[in-house]
Amino acid sequence: MNIGIIGYGSMGSMLVEKLSKKKDNRLYVYNRTIEKLKSLPPEINVCSSNSDLASKVDVVIMCVRPFDIKLVLSEISESVRDDTLIVSLNGSVSFASMEKIINHKMAKVIPSLTAEIGKSQTLVCFNEKAGEDDKTNLKSLFKCMGDVILLPENEMGMGSELVSCMPGFIASIFDVLCSAAREHTSIPEEQIVSMVLNTLCSTGELMLTKKMSFNDVVTRVATKGGITEEGTKVVYEKFPAIARELFEKTLEKRRQTALKAEEIFG
């Protein structure tokens, strides 16, 4: 499959690394700052423009900011082939807006940072013009980064909170927990972090392997009248308000970003 990647920032470069490992893939890349592409291996094809790239590939993946999508679509509209699937790695711009620029089959893909270790929960949605072959091929393409989850477009926002934003949420929560723990112990900071991270990973693996719920784990560990129960009481009493505020603020920010992006399309 011929795959075109527009934009060579953190996400574009990660996609080049992951997708180039499959021998059947032929990669074409374009970036406004061409100097960034000079270190690419010779088997990666560097294109002279967005339109040049679009004319050569089966899938165009736009790894650009929402405010740049309109320009990219305008530049490729005359050169992209009818059977080429256009993919946006940004969930803020709707299919309806993108279709104002080019009436074409499209998809949106939201990977997670954990794609770097092949553990991404990658979200995918398609517009009505995309066919079953497009869906099968794209899901197969992104399998190299982990699991692929198909969602309707209107659920991509909350889905992004749960998989794309969640590593940041999790890291910040456990950063706070580790900081609080340091106030009560002489255990070195690096060891505290290692203990917590390994316990976090093994708890998740246990739950997935044994098909345990969160409540199952709490019940197993927090015995009635025990020490752990005192801690879980604090979490269930205090943390729900923080969790609600977290999602309220992030979803509102997402809504505002989408509105600003939509304004560009008129």
Describe the protein's architecture and organization.
The protein has 266 residues and is α/β, with parallel strands linked by helices. It is elongated. The chain is built from ten helices and eight strands. It has two domains: 2-151, NAD(P)-binding Rossmann-like Domain (Rossmann fold); 166-262, ProC C-terminal domain-like fold, CATH 1.10.3730.
Which helices and strands, and how do they pair?
Blueprint: E1 2-6, H1 10-19, E2 26-30, E3 45-46, H2 50-54, E4 59-62, H3 69-76, E5 85-88, H4 95-101, E6 106-110, E7 120-126, H5 132-142, E8 146-150, H6 156-163, H7 166-182, H8 189-210, H9 214-221, H10 227-265
Parallel strand pairs: 1-2, 1-4, 2-3, 4-5, 5-6, 7-8
Antiparallel strand pairs: 6-7
How much strand?
5-15%
**Main sheet, how many strands, which sense, barrel?**
8 strands, mixed
Q: What's the β-strand tally?
A: 8
Q: Considering DSSP H and I runs of 4 or more, what fraction of the residues is helical?
A: 40-55%
Q: What is the H level of CATH, i.e. the homologous superfamily of the largest domain?
A: NAD(P)-binding Rossmann-like Domain
The CATH topology of the largest domain is: Rossmann fold
Which of globular, elongated, flat, extended, rod-shaped describes the shape? elongated
Question: What is the spatial order of strands in the main beta sheet?
Answer: 3-2-1-4-5-6-7-8
Averaged pLDDT: 95
Q: Write down the domain tally.
A: 2
Question: What is the CATH-assigned architecture of the largest domain?
Answer: 3-Layer(aba) Sandwich
- Low confidence ranges: none
**What is the number of helices?**
10
